[in-house]
Design brief:
- The chain is an alpha/beta fold and 268 residues long.
- The chain is 43% helix and 16% strand.
- It contains twelve helices and nine strands.
- Strands 3-2-1-7-8-9 form a six-stranded parallel β-sheet, sandwiched between helices. A three-stranded antiparallel β-sheet has the order 5-4-6, covered by helices on one side.
- The structure holds nicotinamide-adenine-dinucleotide and zinc ion (ZN).
- The site of nicotinamide-adenine-dinucleotide has 29 residues, from α12.
Length: 268
């Protein structure tokens, strides 16, 4: 089957279904310039996600190699400042407007689905631009650009990067305690999982976009949807653990395929 045939088939499935639910991963934002964990050539070739992705790993690295944390943060700030929703995100926003998408469940923390126009976004791994109080759990969202600029200025200002300096600079909750970024690190509890399972159980189509499917429990969502009778459409140029359950697998970039699906839906 050609790519064009597969896109037609995706359009047919989406038209024949009640609203779809999206399940996305890092590949969805690759074309916005945010590197995925497991694809070569990104920041994760220079920085070990296991080392920087756990609380204890971070503290350890901060104590031994504060320069590494500084350059990781500097890199990350520039990447997220430059990242805009790509044509794939924008197509999903337009599909929601057409009544075709009910919810987006994402493992990404980059806020790009919201910026692309989706209104119901379940962020199972949190959001980088939201803070959570270390004491009372209160959450507070920040405007992305001013938040990143603030961290950039703070990094420039701090001569040495150590735990005491970082704790001093963390934003404060109304209760007076420091707030941390509300992202889920390895070993921490996922967020919005109950609502995500409800969406997976209730959808008639699940679009699985740019995820390697190895980070659990979120990675189980496509199986849940399939077991509940949904059709599964996967778009991912690389290998995937979902090949066995996908009713349709399109091995191309989401930023290329989703706008094409949208265009055909609009002219169908
Ligand atoms: P992953 O890095 O494990 O896998 C990325 C997947 O995307 C791969 O299967 C790859 O083949 C595919 N891919 C690469 N380019 C693509 C493209 N243009 N279009 C479609 N697919 C493409 O990512 P994961 O499965 O999301 O798991 C990694 C974890 O890291 C997640 O928990 C996520 O929260 C986090 N993460 C988030 C971001 C972000 O917020 N943008 C970025 C990196 C990692
Ligand atoms: Zn608090």
């Amino acid at each position: 089957m050609t790519l064009s045939d597969k896109i037609d088939q995706a359009v047919e499935i989406l038209q024949g279904a009640a609203e779809a639910v999206v399940f996305s991963g890092a590949g969805m934002s690759a074309e916005s310039g945010i590197p995925t964990f497991r694809d070569p050539g990104g920041i994760w070739d220079q920085f070990d996600p296991e080392e920087l992705g756990t609380g204890s790993g971070l503290l350890h690295t901060l104590a031994r190699h504060p320069d590494r944390i500084r350059s990781f943060l500097e890199n990350t700030i520039e990447i997220f400042l430059a990242a805009k929703p790509n044509p794939g995100h924008l197509a999903l926003g337009a599909m929601e407007q057409m009544g075709l998408i009910r919810a987006v469940i994402t493992q990404n923390v980059d806020n790009l689905h919201q910026e692309g126009g989706n209104s119901r976004v379940l962020e199972v791994h949190g959001n980088l631009f939201r803070q959570r109080c270390l004491a009372c759990g209160q959450k507070q969202a920040s405007e992305k650009v001013s938040y990143l600029m603030h961290i950039r200025r703070t990094l420039h200002k701090l001569a040495s990067l150590d735990l005491a300096a970082i704790l001093r600079e963390l934003p404060r909750c109304r209760c007076g305690s420091p707030m941390r970024p509300d992202v889920v690190m390895f070993g921490e509890a996922v967020q919005d999982m109950h609502e995500s399972f409800v969406e997976a159980d209730g959808c008639s189509v699940m679009l699985v976009l740019g995820t390697s499917g190895v980070v659990y429990p979120a990675a189980a969502l496509p199986q849940r949807a399939k077991q509940a009778g949904a059709k599964v459409i996967e778009i991912n140029p690389g290998d995937s653990v979902y090949a066995g359950i996908a009713d349709l697998r399109i091995t191309e970039k989401t930023g290329r395929v989703l706008p094409e699906i949208l265009q055909r839906l609009q002219h169908a």
